[in-house]
């Protein structure tokens, strides 16, 4: 428990919040969009398990531009 007290939560907490917001926005966008580069279920796993990088990768690579 002493290790958790040493963590700089003032720096980490905003990053966690930004990551969660980006993940939710990416998942909502994935649900609404009709065509993606690759299967949608694969993008769901990438967004959820790759955290911040997965969400950014979805917006850069995953969305098929019309």
UniProtKB/TrEMBL annotation:
<dbReference type="Pfam" id="PF13396">
    <property type="entry name" value="PLDc_N"/>
</dbReference>
<feature type="transmembrane region" description="Helical">
    <location>
        <begin position="7"/>
        <end position="28"/>
    </location>
</feature>
<keyword id="KW-1133">Transmembrane helix</keyword>
<dbReference type="GO" id="GO:0005886">
    <property type="term" value="C:plasma membrane"/>
</dbReference>
<feature type="domain" description="Cardiolipin synthase N-terminal">
    <location>
        <begin position="21"/>
        <end position="63"/>
    </location>
</feature>
<keyword id="KW-1003">Cell membrane</keyword>
<keyword id="KW-0812">Transmembrane</keyword>
<feature type="transmembrane region" description="Helical">
    <location>
        <begin position="40"/>
        <end position="61"/>
    </location>
</feature>
<protein>
    <submittedName>
        <fullName>Negative regulatory protein YxlE</fullName>
    </submittedName>
</protein>
<keyword id="KW-0472">Membrane</keyword>
<dbReference type="InterPro" id="IPR027379">
    <property type="entry name" value="CLS_N"/>
</dbReference>
């Amino acid at each position: 428990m002493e290790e958790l007290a040493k963590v700089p939560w003032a720096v980490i907490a905003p990053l966690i919040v930004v990551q969660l917001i980006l993940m939710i926005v990416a998942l909502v966008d994935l649900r609404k969009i009709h065509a993606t580069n690759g299967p949608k279920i694969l993008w769901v796993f990438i967004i959820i398990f790759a955290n911040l990088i997965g969400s950014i990768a979805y917006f850069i690579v995953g969305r098929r531009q019309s």
